[in-house]
Amino acid sequence: MVRLLPVIAVALLSASPVLAQKTTKPAPAKPAAKPKPPATKPKPKTQLATISPLSHDEKNGFSVLQVAVPDSAKFIAGWKVGAGGESATTKTVANRPLFTFLIFRGCKANAQGNCDIVADFAITRPDGTINDENKGVVVWNKTAPTDPKKPYLGDGALGYGVDDEGPFGDYRVVATVTDRVAGTTLTTEQTLTIAAGKATPAKSGETKPADPAPAKPEGPDLPTEPPAK
């Protein structure tokens, strides 16, 4: 740690020769210099979530990033103010699904000025079996974004989780994303880890009220399908 010492003004006296019947007045002392304020340390930048190379793909100016979050509504709300990535994770527990979103940029517009992007999802379970039923998920099918270099959050999302029976372990989620106007296909993937949750049985005679349905924010549509095993 740097410690600043106080500045002390010291008057330096120099002898002047005595002339006949005449003396010279000493020059007025200069005021002591004010201490410089300590340099302010730059504020640390917000740490971004670590991005796996496999979760991003790019070709011919078209780019896609795959991200998983535990709360889709919170993520969408955060995305609107530039803080969506703070909740990104690849780990969860039973009965708490993760939602996979696709972030893209650089799609090609058709003659009507629209982009058309779809995704096929394939999920490899811990036992090696594959769930490939989620095909043709609409990522973007409307007016092309005004800024092709700016990332946009896709409309489609995939919710995935397991109940208390599992199976638990690693789930490999692969997204094959196609810009149907440009004819460009990209592939991204993430490995999601699902562990068993802690059992919290209700007390005798008590019933747990149902959670109220969260308000649907403006923005991309939320997935409505229940978590698949």
TrEMBL record:
Region Disordered, residue ranges: 23-48, 190-229
Top-rank lineage group of the source organism: Bacteria
Signal peptide: 1-20
Record's compositionally biased regions (Low complexity): 23-32
Signal is among the record's keywords: yes
Keywords: Signal
Protein name: Uncharacterized protein
